[in-house]
């Protein structure tokens, strides 16, 4: 089974969308195997967004992501990285399909509700950034046999 990293950003937390968004992934049939709420420090935020360092939006992104708590999650499922990216919708909410998370809840690219790993390599790097190995659970979820 593939794992991915998802993070509910400060606007999702502040707007009370945590349960709503988690519910979408649960109803899809994915398994939540890691979850924590935290307030990012600058160092972690810069490591998370390292590929954007030097870009005009880097500083405002760091300020935003460290402004309020976030919810870091590890999800598991078949083809979860690609499927989660579809569920998230386009990075720019103006281009996100209606019904996607960003299409449903976000208006501005600078406040787009959620982050999701875009590749297996990114997922592995981001999971290690936020979770120790012993914080990722392995368990049987009732009903798994109906999903594959």
CATH topology: Alpha-Beta Plaits
The amount of helix comes to 25-40%
Uncertain residue ranges: none
Task: Give the overall shape.
Answer: globular
For the record, the count of structural domains works out to 1
- Supply the CATH class: Alpha Beta
Mean pLDDT: 96
Order of helices and strands: EHHEHHEHHEH
Helix/strand-derived class? alpha+beta
| Total helical elements | 7
The largest sheet is: 4 strands, antiparallel
Q: How big is the Rg? A: 15 Å
Topology:
Elements (H helix, E strand, L loop, with lengths): L1 E7 L1 H5 L3 H11 L2 E8 L3 H7 L9 H8 L4 E8 L2 H9 L12 H5 L8 E3 L3 H11 L18
Antiparallel strand pairs: 1-3, 1-4, 2-3
Main attributes of the structure:
single chain; 148 residues; alpha+beta; 7 helices
Describe the model.
With about 150 residues, this protein is an alpha+beta fold. The protein has a single domain (about 1-135), classed as 2-Layer Sandwich (Alpha-Beta Plaits). It is about 40% helix and about 20% strand. It is built from seven helices and four strands, in the order βααβααβααβα. It has helices at about 10-15, 20-30, 40-50, 60-65, 80-90, 100-105, 120-130, and strands at about 1-10, 30-40, 70-75, 115. A four-stranded antiparallel beta sheet has the order 2-3-1-4. The radius of gyration is 15 Å and the shape is globular. The mean pLDDT is about 95.
